[in-house]
Amino acid sequence: MFIRAVVILCVVTVWCDIIEEDNVAVQEKEHVPADSENPGCGCNSLRRDGGTNTVKTHIWHDQAAAKYSKALKEDQIDGGEHQQISDVPKQMVWIPAGEFLMGTDNPGIPQDGEGPQRKVHLDGFYMDVFEVSNLEFQKFVNTTGYVTEAEKFGDSFVFEGLLSEAVKGQISQAVAAAPWWLPVRGADWRHPEGPDSDIVGRLDHPVLHVSWNDAVAYCTWKGKRLPTEAEWECACRGGLKDRIFPWGNKLNPKGQHYANLWQGEFPNQNTGEDGYTKSAPVTSFPVNGYGLYNMVGNAWEWTADWWDIHHTTDELHNPTGPTMGNDKVKKGGSYMCHKSYCYRYRCAARSQNTPDSSSSNLGFRCVSQKLS
Ligand SMILES: *[C@@H]1O[C@H](CO)[C@@H](O)[C@H](O)[C@H]1NC(C)=O
Ligand SMILES: [Ca+2]
Ligand SMILES: [Ca+2]
């Protein structure tokens, strides 16, 4: 999957940390909840019954990749819609090659393996400016007939607060560690809050209820791939060095909201002070230094890497994470994240799910070495 075509598009090397904030040297003095206070959002406990056979997953993923690569090639010959790359430049931005500091020595959630901070070198790459939207995913499904894993399994995890009483009444099983997550029959990307919901009026919102395998199939079809965790985090930092958020160290500079998060008391009260109590259009909120939207908040984003909490401090070049594992790394947090429960809307923060998992706050975006 990780074909790294060496494309020397950028002769001058621009370092990831080239942009420095002048006067934000002091780390933000915010209350960081102790581990005991921070049971987590439970969004890492969402896994399908019977766990995951990673070997099987690999085969599935390779097949999917082959299938959609083929579709892409055929489409190129036919001059298919997604090959109209005239609108691609504004959909992707170039993240320049360079080095950056990955992770943090001041972890918000140490047990997630946010530290230690380590120097990582990356080749340049293009990244989708937006989370993949329902509209983009609909184009993919319309063209290929792709069926997501949530549709195959017949269910997906939905945050209880989003469900109608009718749907809630039919569900008995919940996630032990996080009772606000309910497995909902008929929940999928077209029905984000279960069978009585739809995406009408939300085509510009991030596609949700997509598994890691689904995300890989989509990116492959687009001639792209999922970002490695290192690429995602470098992009999240937007050229800033050693900052908490994509825009700096203050959560709400000048009282403004920079991301779609949770305000109020989780999980019972969401005031929607930032304008949204669930997902927001992928075009919402200010961009970071690289011109990327919603790197933290809105939808969690899958990365290519397997999950592990132990990291070497050796300087690495284009790290791709562990060679195997049970869970894939997701980054950025979501509209459900609140400091009291899920202080994961930080570039160094991370969480994990099995590659077949899907939920009402998990999406993705793709990267590529070149634009075509
Ligand atoms: C996908 O197909 C449906 C049903 O034909 C149609 O309503 C929708 O507009 C199509 N979406 C895209 C993005 O082409
Ligand atoms: Ca919100
Ligand atoms: Ca996001």
UniProtKB/TrEMBL annotation:
Signal peptide: 1-16
Gene3D superfamilies found in the cross-reference section: paralog of FGE (formylglycine-generating enzyme) (3.90.1580.10)
Annotated ranges, domain Sulfatase-modifying factor enzyme-like: 90-367
Coarse class of the protein's main subcellular location: endoplasmic reticulum
Domain of life: Eukaryota
Organism the protein comes from: Paramormyrops kingsleyae
InterPro entries, per database record: CTDL_fold, Sulfatase_Mod_Factor_Kinase, SUMF_dom, SUMF_sf
Gene Ontology molecular function: formylglycine-generating oxidase activity; identical protein binding; metal ion binding
Catalytic reactions of this protein: L-cysteinyl-[sulfatase] + 2 a thiol + O2 = an organic disulfide + 3-oxo-L-alanyl-[sulfatase] + hydrogen sulfide + H2O + H(+)
Keywords linked to the UniProt accession: Calcium, Copper, Disulfide bond, Endoplasmic reticulum, Glycoprotein, Metal-binding, Oxidoreductase, Signal
An individual GO BP term: post-translational protein modification
Role description: Oxidase that catalyzes the conversion of cysteine to 3-oxoalanine on target proteins, using molecular oxygen and an unidentified reducing agent. 3-oxoalanine modification, which is also named formylglycine (fGly), occurs in the maturation of arylsulfatases and some alkaline phosphatases that use the hydrated form of 3-oxoalanine as a catalytic nucleophile. Known substrates include GALNS, ARSA, STS and ARSE.
EC number(s) given by UniProt: 1.8.3.7
Family statement: Belongs to the sulfatase-modifying factor family.
Pathway: Protein modification; sulfatase oxidation
GO cellular component: endoplasmic reticulum lumen
Keyword flag Metal-binding: yes
The name this protein goes by in its record: Formylglycine-generating enzyme
Quaternary structure note: Monomer, homodimer and heterodimer with SUMF2.
Subcellular localization, as worded in the UniProt entry: Endoplasmic reticulum lumen
Class of enzymatic activity (EC top level): oxidoreductase
